[in-house]
Amino acid sequence: MTTTADPADSPLVRAARGEAVPHTPVWFMRQAGRSLPEYREIRRGTDMLEACRTPDLVTEITLQPVRRHRVDAAIFFSDIVVPLEATGVDIDIEPGVGPVLDVPFTSREDLERLPELTPDMIPDIAESVRRIVLELGPTPLIGFAGAPFTLASYLIEGGPSKNHELTKSLMHGDPQLWHDLCARLTQISAAFLKVQVEAGASAIQLFDSWAGFLSRADYREYVLPHSRATLAALADSGVPRIHFGVGTGELLTDMAGAGTEVIGVDYRVNLGDAIARVGGGMPVQGNLDPALLFAPWEVVEREVRRILDEGRAAPGHIFNLGHGVLPDTDPVVLTRVVELVHEVSSR
Ligand code: 1CP
Predict the structure, then answer these.
(1) pLDDT tops 50 at residue 1
(2) Would 265 disulfide with which of 18, 38, 162, 274, CB 3.0-4.6 Å?
Protein backbone atom coordinates (compact mmCIF):
# COMPACT_ATOMS: atom_id res chain seq x y z
CA MET A 1 0.00 0.00 0.00
CA THR A 2 1.24 3.49 -0.74
CA THR A 3 0.54 6.45 1.46
CA THR A 4 0.49 9.93 0.03
CA ALA A 5 2.10 12.97 1.62
CA ASP A 6 -1.29 14.11 2.87
CA PRO A 7 -1.65 13.78 6.66
CA ALA A 8 -5.36 13.04 6.08
CA ASP A 9 -4.14 9.77 4.51
CA SER A 10 -1.58 8.98 7.22
CA PRO A 11 -1.60 5.70 9.18
CA LEU A 12 -2.94 7.53 12.25
CA VAL A 13 -5.93 9.06 10.49
CA ARG A 14 -6.59 5.87 8.52
CA ALA A 15 -6.54 3.74 11.69
CA ALA A 16 -8.87 6.23 13.39
CA ARG A 17 -11.31 5.69 10.51
CA GLY A 18 -10.94 1.93 10.63
CA GLU A 19 -9.18 1.80 7.23
CA ALA A 20 -6.24 -0.44 6.21
CA VAL A 21 -2.81 0.79 7.34
CA PRO A 22 0.79 -0.06 6.32
CA HIS A 23 1.68 -0.38 10.02
CA THR A 24 0.02 0.32 13.37
CA PRO A 25 0.49 4.03 14.10
CA VAL A 26 2.01 4.95 17.46
CA TRP A 27 2.32 8.15 19.50
CA PHE A 28 2.55 8.78 23.24
CA MET A 29 0.40 10.95 25.46
CA ARG A 30 2.75 13.55 26.98
CA GLN A 31 5.44 12.74 24.41
CA ALA A 32 6.24 16.46 24.20
CA GLY A 33 7.98 17.74 27.26
CA ARG A 34 8.59 15.72 30.37
CA SER A 35 11.19 13.06 29.61
CA LEU A 36 13.14 14.86 26.88
CA PRO A 37 16.41 16.63 27.80
CA GLU A 38 16.02 18.90 24.76
CA TYR A 39 12.63 19.97 26.20
CA ARG A 40 14.03 20.77 29.62
CA GLU A 41 16.79 22.75 27.95
CA ILE A 42 14.53 24.90 25.80
CA ARG A 43 11.98 25.48 28.60
CA ARG A 44 14.59 26.72 31.07
CA GLY A 45 13.57 30.13 32.42
CA THR A 46 10.17 30.23 30.69
CA ASP A 47 6.93 29.81 32.60
CA MET A 48 4.73 26.96 31.29
CA LEU A 49 1.73 29.07 30.25
CA GLU A 50 4.00 31.66 28.66
CA ALA A 51 5.72 28.86 26.71
CA CYS A 52 2.30 27.63 25.51
CA ARG A 53 1.58 31.09 24.07
CA THR A 54 4.93 31.51 22.27
CA PRO A 55 4.73 30.05 18.73
CA ASP A 56 8.53 29.56 18.35
CA LEU A 57 8.63 27.44 21.50
CA VAL A 58 5.37 25.60 20.84
CA THR A 59 6.55 24.67 17.34
CA GLU A 60 9.95 23.42 18.46
CA ILE A 61 8.64 21.47 21.48
CA THR A 62 5.86 19.85 19.43
CA LEU A 63 8.38 18.69 16.81
CA GLN A 64 11.04 17.38 19.25
CA PRO A 65 9.47 13.94 19.90
CA VAL A 66 8.63 13.46 16.21
CA ARG A 67 12.26 13.97 15.25
CA ARG A 68 13.60 11.86 18.07
CA HIS A 69 11.17 8.92 18.23
CA ARG A 70 9.71 8.93 14.68
CA VAL A 71 6.20 8.67 16.13
CA ASP A 72 3.28 8.68 13.68
CA ALA A 73 1.75 11.88 15.05
CA ALA A 74 2.63 15.07 16.87
CA ILE A 75 0.50 16.25 19.80
CA PHE A 76 0.13 20.01 20.01
CA PHE A 77 2.24 21.38 22.87
CA SER A 78 -0.21 23.28 25.04
CA ASP A 79 -2.31 22.53 28.11
CA ILE A 80 -5.98 21.97 28.86
CA VAL A 81 -6.06 25.19 30.91
CA VAL A 82 -4.65 27.43 28.13
CA PRO A 83 -8.14 28.32 26.81
CA LEU A 84 -9.30 29.13 30.36
CA GLU A 85 -6.41 31.49 30.89
CA ALA A 86 -7.13 33.03 27.48
CA THR A 87 -10.64 33.95 28.65
CA GLY A 88 -9.15 35.78 31.64
CA VAL A 89 -9.25 33.11 34.37
CA ASP A 90 -6.46 33.79 36.86
CA ILE A 91 -4.71 30.42 36.62
CA ASP A 92 -1.08 29.31 36.75
CA ILE A 93 0.75 26.07 36.05
CA GLU A 94 3.07 25.40 38.94
CA PRO A 95 6.13 23.26 38.21
CA GLY A 96 5.71 19.81 39.73
CA VAL A 97 2.07 20.51 40.66
CA GLY A 98 -0.06 21.46 37.67
CA PRO A 99 -2.81 24.05 37.19
CA VAL A 100 -3.62 26.16 40.27
CA LEU A 101 -6.04 29.04 40.94
CA ASP A 102 -5.81 31.44 43.88
CA VAL A 103 -9.58 31.97 43.83
CA PRO A 104 -11.51 28.81 42.92
CA PHE A 105 -14.93 28.82 41.24
CA THR A 106 -17.87 28.75 43.70
CA SER A 107 -20.80 30.81 42.48
CA ARG A 108 -23.12 32.10 39.75
CA GLU A 109 -21.16 35.40 39.87
CA ASP A 110 -18.01 33.45 38.99
CA LEU A 111 -19.82 31.98 35.98
CA GLU A 112 -20.90 35.46 34.89
CA ARG A 113 -17.23 36.46 34.92
CA LEU A 114 -16.28 33.54 32.62
CA PRO A 115 -16.71 34.71 29.00
CA GLU A 116 -16.97 32.57 25.88
CA LEU A 117 -13.72 31.85 24.02
CA THR A 118 -13.41 33.57 20.65
CA PRO A 119 -10.62 32.99 18.09
CA ASP A 120 -9.29 36.54 18.54
CA MET A 121 -8.30 35.61 22.12
CA ILE A 122 -5.89 32.94 20.82
CA PRO A 123 -4.35 34.11 17.51
CA ASP A 124 -1.02 32.60 18.65
CA ILE A 125 -2.60 29.13 18.87
CA ALA A 126 -3.67 29.25 15.21
CA GLU A 127 -0.25 30.58 14.26
CA SER A 128 1.57 27.81 16.15
CA VAL A 129 -0.61 25.12 14.55
CA ARG A 130 -0.03 26.52 11.04
CA ARG A 131 3.73 26.57 11.54
CA ILE A 132 3.82 23.05 12.99
CA VAL A 133 1.69 21.63 10.18
CA LEU A 134 4.01 23.17 7.58
CA GLU A 135 7.04 21.61 9.27
CA LEU A 136 5.40 18.22 9.76
CA GLY A 137 4.51 17.58 6.10
CA PRO A 138 2.86 14.12 5.94
CA THR A 139 2.85 13.57 9.71
CA PRO A 140 -0.50 14.48 11.31
CA LEU A 141 -0.86 16.93 14.19
CA ILE A 142 -3.32 16.00 16.94
CA GLY A 143 -5.11 18.97 18.50
CA PHE A 144 -6.63 18.59 21.95
CA ALA A 145 -8.73 20.08 24.72
CA GLY A 146 -9.91 19.16 28.19
CA ALA A 147 -13.50 17.93 28.53
CA PRO A 148 -15.91 20.06 30.60
CA PHE A 149 -15.79 17.85 33.72
CA THR A 150 -11.98 17.79 33.96
CA LEU A 151 -11.79 21.56 33.35
CA ALA A 152 -14.54 22.18 35.92
CA SER A 153 -12.63 20.11 38.45
CA TYR A 154 -9.55 22.38 38.20
CA LEU A 155 -11.70 25.52 38.43
CA ILE A 156 -13.67 24.31 41.45
CA GLU A 157 -10.92 22.52 43.38
CA GLY A 158 -8.40 25.28 42.63
CA GLY A 159 -5.81 22.68 41.55
CA PRO A 160 -5.14 18.95 41.28
CA SER A 161 -7.47 16.96 43.54
CA LYS A 162 -7.37 13.48 45.05
CA ASN A 163 -11.11 13.15 45.68
CA HIS A 164 -12.84 15.90 43.68
CA GLU A 165 -15.06 16.57 46.68
CA LEU A 166 -15.75 20.27 46.00
CA THR A 167 -16.63 19.43 42.40
CA LYS A 168 -19.05 16.68 43.44
CA SER A 169 -20.52 18.93 46.11
CA LEU A 170 -21.31 21.66 43.57
CA MET A 171 -22.57 19.13 41.01
CA HIS A 172 -25.10 17.69 43.47
CA GLY A 173 -25.71 20.80 45.58
CA ASP A 174 -26.48 23.18 42.72
CA PRO A 175 -27.12 21.11 39.58
CA GLN A 176 -28.33 24.15 37.63
CA LEU A 177 -25.08 26.04 38.25
CA TRP A 178 -23.13 22.86 37.45
CA HIS A 179 -24.85 22.39 34.09
CA ASP A 180 -24.54 26.08 33.22
CA LEU A 181 -20.81 26.00 34.05
CA CYS A 182 -20.33 22.87 31.94
CA ALA A 183 -22.25 24.46 29.05
CA ARG A 184 -19.82 27.39 29.14
CA LEU A 185 -16.84 25.01 29.32
CA THR A 186 -18.27 23.09 26.35
CA GLN A 187 -18.20 26.31 24.33
CA ILE A 188 -14.63 27.05 25.45
CA SER A 189 -13.33 23.54 24.71
CA ALA A 190 -15.07 23.32 21.35
CA ALA A 191 -13.81 26.76 20.30
CA PHE A 192 -10.24 25.79 21.29
CA LEU A 193 -10.50 22.58 19.24
CA LYS A 194 -12.00 24.36 16.22
CA VAL A 195 -9.18 26.90 16.10
CA GLN A 196 -6.69 24.02 16.01
CA VAL A 197 -8.59 22.11 13.30
CA GLU A 198 -9.12 25.20 11.16
CA ALA A 199 -5.39 25.92 11.34
CA GLY A 200 -4.59 22.39 10.11
CA ALA A 201 -4.74 19.77 12.89
CA SER A 202 -5.59 16.35 11.38
CA ALA A 203 -7.28 14.77 14.43
CA ILE A 204 -8.40 15.88 17.88
CA GLN A 205 -8.33 14.28 21.31
CA LEU A 206 -10.74 15.26 24.07
CA PHE A 207 -9.18 14.48 27.47
CA ASP A 208 -11.60 13.77 30.30
CA SER A 209 -8.69 12.72 32.47
CA TRP A 210 -10.52 12.61 35.80
CA ALA A 211 -13.89 11.17 34.70
CA GLY A 212 -12.84 7.84 36.25
CA PHE A 213 -13.53 9.36 39.69
CA LEU A 214 -17.27 9.37 38.95
CA SER A 215 -19.92 6.72 39.42
CA ARG A 216 -21.61 5.68 36.22
CA ALA A 217 -24.87 7.30 37.33
CA ASP A 218 -23.18 10.65 38.00
CA TYR A 219 -21.20 10.39 34.79
CA ARG A 220 -24.36 9.87 32.76
CA GLU A 221 -26.35 12.64 34.41
CA TYR A 222 -23.78 15.36 34.99
CA VAL A 223 -20.93 14.81 32.55
CA LEU A 224 -21.78 12.79 29.43
CA PRO A 225 -24.22 15.37 27.95
CA HIS A 226 -21.48 18.01 28.03
CA SER A 227 -18.76 15.76 26.57
CA ARG A 228 -21.24 14.77 23.86
CA ALA A 229 -21.96 18.42 23.07
CA THR A 230 -18.24 19.22 22.88
CA LEU A 231 -17.56 16.33 20.50
CA ALA A 232 -20.70 17.14 18.47
CA ALA A 233 -19.39 20.65 17.84
CA LEU A 234 -16.52 18.98 15.91
CA ALA A 235 -18.70 16.47 14.04
CA ASP A 236 -18.55 18.41 10.77
CA SER A 237 -14.87 19.29 11.07
CA GLY A 238 -13.80 16.35 8.92
CA VAL A 239 -11.15 15.13 11.38
CA PRO A 240 -11.37 12.01 13.55
CA ARG A 241 -12.09 12.49 17.24
CA ILE A 242 -10.40 10.52 20.06
CA HIS A 243 -11.90 10.48 23.57
CA PHE A 244 -9.82 9.42 26.58
CA GLY A 245 -10.01 9.32 30.36
CA VAL A 246 -8.08 7.61 33.17
CA GLY A 247 -9.61 4.79 35.22
CA THR A 248 -12.64 4.77 32.94
CA GLY A 249 -13.09 1.00 32.48
CA GLU A 250 -16.58 1.19 33.97
CA LEU A 251 -17.50 4.20 31.81
CA LEU A 252 -16.01 2.94 28.56
CA THR A 253 -19.25 2.16 26.77
CA ASP A 254 -20.75 5.53 27.73
CA MET A 255 -17.63 7.39 26.65
CA ALA A 256 -17.47 5.41 23.42
CA GLY A 257 -21.02 6.53 22.71
CA ALA A 258 -20.28 10.21 23.31
CA GLY A 259 -19.70 10.89 19.60
CA THR A 260 -16.12 9.87 18.96
CA GLU A 261 -14.44 7.82 16.24
CA VAL A 262 -11.78 6.38 18.58
CA ILE A 263 -12.00 5.39 22.24
CA GLY A 264 -8.82 5.79 24.28
CA VAL A 265 -8.22 2.98 26.77
CA ASP A 266 -6.26 3.41 29.99
CA TYR A 267 -3.79 0.76 31.17
CA ARG A 268 -6.06 -0.74 33.83
CA VAL A 269 -8.29 -2.39 31.22
CA ASN A 270 -7.03 -5.22 29.08
CA LEU A 271 -7.18 -3.93 25.47
CA GLY A 272 -9.01 -7.04 24.26
CA ASP A 273 -11.63 -6.62 27.00
CA ALA A 274 -12.03 -2.94 26.13
CA ILE A 275 -12.63 -3.81 22.47
CA ALA A 276 -15.25 -6.38 23.48
CA ARG A 277 -16.91 -3.93 25.88
CA VAL A 278 -17.46 -1.33 23.16
CA GLY A 279 -18.85 -4.00 20.84
CA GLY A 280 -15.82 -4.67 18.63
CA GLY A 281 -16.81 -2.17 15.98
CA MET A 282 -14.81 0.81 17.06
CA PRO A 283 -11.14 1.84 16.59
CA VAL A 284 -9.22 1.97 19.88
CA GLN A 285 -6.14 3.76 21.21
CA GLY A 286 -3.82 2.47 23.91
CA ASN A 287 -2.74 1.10 26.24
CA LEU A 288 0.76 0.19 27.51
CA ASP A 289 1.19 0.93 31.23
CA PRO A 290 3.61 3.90 31.35
CA ALA A 291 5.22 2.47 34.51
CA LEU A 292 6.24 -0.69 32.61
CA LEU A 293 8.65 1.41 30.54
CA PHE A 294 10.88 1.17 33.64
CA ALA A 295 10.86 -2.66 33.56
CA PRO A 296 13.44 -4.82 31.73
CA TRP A 297 13.15 -4.59 27.93
CA GLU A 298 11.90 -8.21 27.63
CA VAL A 299 8.85 -7.21 29.67
CA VAL A 300 8.21 -4.14 27.54
CA GLU A 301 8.60 -6.18 24.35
CA ARG A 302 6.19 -8.87 25.54
CA GLU A 303 3.57 -6.27 26.50
CA VAL A 304 3.91 -4.38 23.20
CA ARG A 305 3.44 -7.62 21.24
CA ARG A 306 0.44 -8.62 23.37
CA ILE A 307 -1.25 -5.23 22.96
CA LEU A 308 -0.66 -5.25 19.19
CA ASP A 309 -2.10 -8.74 19.05
CA GLU A 310 -5.21 -7.82 21.02
CA GLY A 311 -5.62 -4.60 19.00
CA ARG A 312 -6.18 -6.66 15.85
CA ALA A 313 -9.70 -7.42 17.08
CA ALA A 314 -10.68 -3.77 16.51
CA PRO A 315 -11.25 -2.18 13.10
CA GLY A 316 -8.37 0.19 13.89
CA HIS A 317 -5.69 0.42 16.57
CA ILE A 318 -3.53 3.41 17.45
CA PHE A 319 -0.76 2.26 19.78
CA ASN A 320 -0.23 4.53 22.79
CA LEU A 321 0.39 4.39 26.50
CA GLY A 322 -2.51 3.95 28.91
CA HIS A 323 -1.75 7.44 30.31
CA GLY A 324 1.01 10.03 29.90
CA VAL A 325 4.77 9.42 29.73
CA LEU A 326 6.17 9.60 33.28
CA PRO A 327 8.80 12.33 33.74
CA ASP A 328 11.73 9.96 34.53
CA THR A 329 11.12 7.65 31.56
CA ASP A 330 14.26 6.87 29.54
CA PRO A 331 13.53 8.39 26.10
CA VAL A 332 15.62 5.63 24.50
CA VAL A 333 12.97 3.10 25.58
CA LEU A 334 10.24 5.18 23.92
CA THR A 335 12.16 5.17 20.63
CA ARG A 336 12.59 1.39 20.88
CA VAL A 337 8.85 0.96 21.45
CA VAL A 338 8.11 2.96 18.28
CA GLU A 339 10.55 0.79 16.29
CA LEU A 340 9.07 -2.40 17.71
CA VAL A 341 5.47 -1.36 17.00
CA HIS A 342 6.40 -0.53 13.40
CA GLU A 343 8.39 -3.72 12.88
CA VAL A 344 5.84 -6.11 14.39
CA SER A 345 2.83 -4.53 12.70
CA SER A 346 4.26 -3.90 9.19
CA ARG A 347 2.40 -5.68 6.47
O1 1CP B 1 6.58 22.89 33.73
C2 1CP B 1 6.20 21.93 33.02
O3 1CP B 1 6.94 21.36 32.19
C4 1CP B 1 4.78 21.56 33.22
C5 1CP B 1 4.41 20.15 32.92
C6 1CP B 1 3.27 20.15 31.90
C7 1CP B 1 3.36 19.88 30.53
C8 1CP B 1 4.58 19.50 29.73
C9 1CP B 1 1.94 20.46 32.19
C10 1CP B 1 1.39 20.89 33.50
N11 1CP B 1 1.21 20.37 31.00
C12 1CP B 1 2.04 20.00 29.99
C13 1CP B 1 1.68 19.84 28.54
C14 1CP B 1 0.45 19.12 28.19
N15 1CP B 1 -0.65 18.98 29.00
C16 1CP B 1 0.16 18.52 26.94
C17 1CP B 1 1.03 18.61 25.68
C18 1CP B 1 2.19 17.73 25.70
C19 1CP B 1 2.03 16.29 25.35
O20 1CP B 1 1.01 15.65 25.61
O21 1CP B 1 2.99 15.75 24.81
C22 1CP B 1 -1.11 17.94 27.04
C23 1CP B 1 -1.82 17.12 25.97
C24 1CP B 1 -1.60 18.25 28.32
C25 1CP B 1 -2.94 17.89 28.77
C26 1CP B 1 -3.28 17.94 30.20
N27 1CP B 1 -2.94 18.88 31.14
C28 1CP B 1 -4.13 17.01 30.82
C29 1CP B 1 -4.80 15.87 30.10
C30 1CP B 1 -3.84 14.77 29.85
C31 1CP B 1 -3.52 13.90 31.04
O32 1CP B 1 -2.33 13.75 31.32
O33 1CP B 1 -4.46 13.36 31.65
C34 1CP B 1 -4.26 17.37 32.17
C35 1CP B 1 -5.06 16.66 33.24
C36 1CP B 1 -3.50 18.56 32.36
C37 1CP B 1 -3.36 19.34 33.59
C38 1CP B 1 -1.93 19.44 33.97
N39 1CP B 1 -1.07 20.34 33.40
C40 1CP B 1 0.18 20.14 33.92
C41 1CP B 1 0.12 19.07 34.86
C42 1CP B 1 1.27 18.55 35.64
C43 1CP B 1 -1.21 18.63 34.88
C44 1CP B 1 -1.78 17.49 35.70
C45 1CP B 1 -1.96 17.92 37.12
C46 1CP B 1 -2.78 16.92 37.94
O47 1CP B 1 -2.25 15.85 38.27
O48 1CP B 1 -3.94 17.24 38.22
Answers:
(1) no
(2) 274
